[in-house]
Give the backbone structure.
Amino acid sequence: MIDELFLSTTPVNEPCAQLGAQDYLRQTRAECRAFIGQLHRQFGEPPSGAWLKVRRCPHDFGTYHELVVRFDDTNEQAVDFAYRLENDLPLHWDDIARAELQQALAADALEINAQHH
């Protein structure tokens, strides 16, 4: 059976996009992409039966996004990987993820600015 654990959109001690903010969707997408890359660098590629996915979560205040690890709960390697991710999430962005996030948000800001002029 497929199970999933909700992780976050950013490392534990980093700020994240706030639901309701004007640029929430762009920012949370950039955060999720950068975080997935960092998790792959830190923990390796998921084993067969496990994968990372951005989950859309409806809420009274709008739809927010959350990174989840989905896994086959009959696959021991997939289960171990999922719980290792959940238990050992990084506290901060690594240098590569921070640069990717800054670049993505800067590109989005330029695009938004160009649309308004």
About this structure: The chain has a mean pLDDT of 91.
